[in-house]
Amino acid sequence: MNIYVSNLSFNTNDAELNELFSKFGEVSSAKVIMDRESGRSRGFGFVEMPSEEEGKEAMASLNNKEVEGRAMSVSIAKEREERTGGGGSRGGYSNNRGGGGGNRW
Predict the structure, then answer these.
(1) What is the pLDDT of residue 79?
(2) Which of 3, 23, 30, 79 has a CB 3.0–4.6 Å from the CB of 17, allowing a cystine?
(3) Which CATH number goes with the domain that contains 58?
(4) d(Cα 67, Cα 8) in Å, to the nearest integer?
(5) Is 98 among the domain residues?
(6) In whole angstroms, how far apart are CA 78 and each of 3, 27, 45?
(7) Confidence of residue 78 (pLDDT cuts 50, 70, 90)
(8) Can you give the pTM of this predicted structure?
(9) pLDDT of 62-72, one tens digit each?
(10) Is residue 84 part of a domain?
């Protein structure tokens, strides 16, 4: 069972998240999502528990539980949606001549 945990303290790390959920059963993984640029926590994470029963018990017990002054929100994680568009191309006009300067048209 994949569990989404939000409103985490920005000080919470993977090990602490694992410890919170392991009181209810086996935890396959616990990951706090970090900001790529700053390296700081983004305040949410994911916990994977192999037993659905243990996962539901953890969710019921930990939802709205205050940890480090913040009430966590715990729910079943939704499947990640495929992103469309983008893909690295910025679009727009290109004259394919290289170089620079001069008039665009």
Answers:
(1) 78
(2) 30
(3) 3.30.70.330
(4) 8
(5) no
(6) 9, 18, 13
(7) confident
(8) 0.74
(9) 999 998 899 99
(10) no
